[in-house]
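User: I'm writing a tutorial on reading structure tokens. Could you give me a worked example: one chain, its sequence, then its tokens, then a sentence or two explaining what the tokens reveal?
Assistant: Sure. Here is the example chain.
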Amino acid sequence: MKFRVFVITALLVCGFLIVTTRTDWGQRRILNPVSGSGPLWSGPSLTHATSLSSDENNNIDIYKSAHLATVNITSTVYRRSIFLEVYPSKDQGSGFLISPDGKILTNSHVVANERQLEVTLPDQSRYKAQLLSRDEANDVALLQIQPRKTLPSLHLGDSDGLQVGQKVLAIGNPFGLEGTLTTGIVSSLGRTIRGENERTLEGLIQTDAAINPGNSGGPLLDSAGNVVGINTAILGPSGNIGIGFAMPINRAKLMLDDFQAGRKRPKLGVSVVPISGDYADALSLPTRGGLLVQEVDPDSPASRAGLRGGKQEVQIGNAQVLVGGDLIMSIDGQPVDRDDAISRALARKRSGDTLELTIFRNGRTTNVKVKLGDEGAI
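And here are its predicted structure tokens:
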């Protein structure tokens, strides 16, 4: 009898120990099958969850203020269908407020139809816009709306001090998606591209900040939130591939100064290509190079001063170039060392001023004085 009680008791104790051990082992397996302790996963710490980098905070702060001054611009053009029916076609772009009373900067090509312009603010209020001034050579335009309240506006920076590698931010309405922010860097400076109507745009800022259709006319900002450029063009027919271009804001400042003073922008009236080094030597030109005149606009200041364009088309590197024209080597005594040397020189001039060019023609160097007017392409 005693033996049976002992055996039963022993069995009960062993069973209790087995159950306890299995339960504890099972709990440990559920908590952490590898180490035997701790949870399978953990959430971010409170500090990590609430903190942002200084660069992120900079992006956020700039966006919060700048997007309120970035607007959508609609230009309505009436077209005819193949059935001769008239229908409205709307093109969209961006712009930005530069004064509390409703003055807006944008691209000239955004406001192609100046008679029917509508501006939509971030709060979705809409206003008819009037074109006050435009500079097609630099693809900039100034609009005016009549707001019912004081509006936020952006500060204009200094594009002459830009450096390759510095951070920039673009805000606009790509594909009609309003208030979009993209970031990047200045990829290059002084770029020359062909704009609308085959017009040459010189001295552009190249950036990898994503720019797409609808971004045109929006602000390109530096890390202090100042406007350093106007988003102007992309490389490619449909969308961003990491190469976009912006017009330096100092070009727009010149238009604003002239508008305020009632002046017109001076023009020279030539198209040029940069050439130097081996390519210049191959054409029997000075190796230090300069700007080779391709075409001279009829009845322009350049034409009246006797500047000559190219006569024969040749292959230079990967480009077709007209040769036989004047090579502009210096402007007002300053050597031509940048593709946008003409635009930068004109930026300091007014209509009626004189521009002195040192040119190379027929193996000789000579000086030509050009009285500037407001005709021509450049």
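What the tokens reveal: The radius of gyration is 33 Å. The chain has three domains: 1-37, 50-261, 270-371.
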